[in-house]
Design goal:
The protein has 165 residues and is of the alpha+beta class. The chain has two domains: 70 residues, no CATH class; 71 residues, no CATH class. The chain is built from six helices and four strands. 12% of the residues are buried.
Length: 165
């Protein structure tokens, strides 16, 4: 994976879009007389993400004193965001940030790629998740197994009869 790991900054498509919009606002002010990169990132992202962004600058050898270098780096990040794979993740619950971070880390470790999640909550799922990506739908919940077992129990107990063919 390239050195531009943005997983500490966002994990969902909505978060990435918001992050990109905030970067656009910062970029538009970058050549203003009183521009201070740390203050601009703090005002737009808060201390945790500001610190992560400043670390990202250092890790990518971007001089935080060079406004042109920061502007170029912001454009590089926005290009990466625009080209990231989006995976629709259907869950039975509203995930916490830690859960999304764990999912994101799994992709980085196992697929060597950062992805964005488009999260949907579906209360009909029973434990697990379903994933929609590349035109495929994969149901990793217990729902299909539970439906099969329930059907078999109802049929074997005589509570339900299957239609004759």
């Amino acid at each position: 994976m390239d050195t531009l790991d943005l997983s500490e900054l966002f994990n969902t498509k909505a978060q990435a879009e918001d992050f990109s919009n905030r970067l656009t606002m910062i970029s538009s002010k970058i050549f203003a007389t009183q521009f201070n990169p740390e203050a601009a990132f703090l005002d737009n992202f808060g201390i945790k993400k500001k610190d992560a962004f400043m670390t990202l600058l250092r890790n990518n050898n971007v001089n935080p004193e060079s406004r042109l270098a920061i502007k170029d780096f912001i454009e590089k990040i926005q290009t990466k965001i625009a080209n990231m794979t989006v995976i629709s993740l259907i869950l039975a619950f509203e995930p916490k940030e830690e859960t999304l971070q764990a999912f994101s880390s799994w992709f980085v470790i196992n697929v060597n790629k950062q992805v964005l999640f488009d999260v949907t909550v579906d209360k009909t799922l029973v434990a697990g998740a379903a994933i929609r990506s590349g035109g495929k739908y994969l149901d990793f919940s217990i729902r299909p197994v539970l439906a099969k077992i329930t059907s078999e129990v109802l049929v074997s107990s005589g509570m339900v009869t299957l239609p004759q063919k």
